[in-house]
Structures are given as C-alpha cells and as structure tokens.
Design goal:
About 30% of the residues lie in helices and about 10% in strands. The protein is an alpha+beta fold and about 45 residues long. A two-stranded antiparallel sheet has the order 1-2. A hairpin with a 2-residue loop joins strand 1 (about 10) and strand 2. The radius of gyration is 16 Å and the shape is flat.
Length: about 45
C-alpha cells in the first residue's frame, strides 16, 4: 500500500478529486449563505 495524500483522504476514504473542483464561488450564493446564517433561516 502506497502513501496516500492526506488532503484527499478522510475517515479511510480516498476521494477522486479535490473539493475545489466543484466549489461554487459565486457572489450571490456567498451572500445568501451569510444572510441565512445571520438570520437563523439555515437551521433545521
């Protein structure tokens, strides 16, 4: 067994790509997230 990249391994699972591949960097979603966190609307 070879050395695994710790950035791609979590809880014994190795992922095929980095999270930045599918990251959503839009300004709208960032502001929506902050608004929901500030107002408490994002709680379940």
């Amino acid at each position: 067994m070879g050395l695994l990249d710790p950035a791609k391994e979590a809880f014994g699972r190795q992922f095929s790509t980095d999270d930045t591949t599918y990251a959503d960097e839009s300004h709208w979603h960032r502001m929506l997230y902050r608004f929901m966190e500030f107002t408490g609307l994002s709680t379940f």
